[in-house]
Amino acid sequence: MIVIKNLTKVYPPKIIALDDFSAQIESGEFISLVGPSGAGKSTLIRMLIAQERPTKGQILIGDKDITRLSRRHVPYYRRKIGVVWQDFKLLQNKTIFENVAYALEVVEKSQAEINARVPKILKLVGLEGKEDRFPRELSGGEIQRAAIARALVHDPHLLIADEPTGNLDPVNTEDIVKLLLKINKLGTTVILATHNKDVVDNLRKRVIVLEDGKLISDKKLGRYQL
C-alpha cells in the first residue's frame, strides 16, 4: 500500500507544482494519473521514485517514508519499483537482451540468474526471438516493450509508466496498454500517467485527475474529464 499525505512541492521563487495532494493506493491497483501539462503528474512521479523531495508531506510505503530516505538507501528502494518513460532510454549499442540484462548487472546479479531471468521477461512482453536485435532494428512498439521488460526484470511491486504511449500509433498504443493490464493482473501495482483520453476511458480503472498541482477528482471507475 502507498499512502500519500499532504504532498506539496514548491519551486523557487513561488511555483507550486503540487499542492497538498493526498491519496491511498492499494497493492495491485491500476491507476490512471491524468491532467494537462503542468498539472503536477511528473512532479508526483519524481517524488514516488525518490528523485526529488517534497517541500512538505509524506509518501509511506509500508512503514517507511520514502521522502526521508538517505542518498545511499535510494538505489535500494528503486530496485523495488519499475519506471517506463516516453522516450524509452534504451542503450543503442546493446542488444535487447543486453539492455534488459544491464539492469541486473548493475546490481551485481550472477550471470546464471541473468540468463534465467531475462528470457522469461522478454517472453512476458512478447519479444521472444528478438533478444539479439538492437533498438534500431525494432518498431516503436517493440522498443517500448523492451523498456517495459527492463523495468520489470527486478520483479518490482510498483510499475510507473510515464506517457509510455505518447510516441506510438493507435495499434501499438492498444498493445502496450494490454501489456500493462497483463502485468497488473500478475499482481504488480501500476500507475499510468497519460494525456490519452481514449486510453483512460477504455481502461475503466481508477482515475486520479490533477490540475494546477491540486487533486481535482479521484474515481474508482473513472473517465478522463476536466
Brief write-up:
The protein has 226 residues and is α/β, with parallel strands linked by helices.
Could you characterize the architecture of this molecule?
The chain is an alpha/beta fold. Helix content is 32%, strand content 27%. The strands form 2 sheets. The protein has a 6-stranded mixed beta sheet with strand order 6-7-8-3-9-10, sandwiched between helices. The protein has a 4-stranded antiparallel beta sheet with strand order 2-1-4-5, with helices on one face. The protein is globular.
Features:
4-stranded antiparallel β-sheet, 6-stranded mixed β-sheet, single chain, globular, 226 residues, alpha/beta, 10 strands, 7 helices
**Secondary structure tally: strands:** 10
Radius of gyration: 17 Å
Given as residue ranges, the uncertain stretches (5+ residues, pLDDT < 50) are none
What strand line-up does the widest sheet have?
A: 6-7-8-3-9-10
The largest sheet, given as strand count, sense and whether it forms a barrel, is: 6 strands, mixed
Overall geometry: globular
Written as H for each helix and E for each strand, in order along the chain, the element string is EEEHEEHEHHHEHEHEE
Percentage of residues in helical conformation: 25-40%
Mean pLDDT: 91
Find the structural class using helix and strand composition. Answer: alpha/beta
Proportion of β residues?
Answer: 25-35%
User: How many alpha or pi helices?
Assistant: 7
- First-last Cα distance: 27 Å
Oligomeric description of these chains: single chain
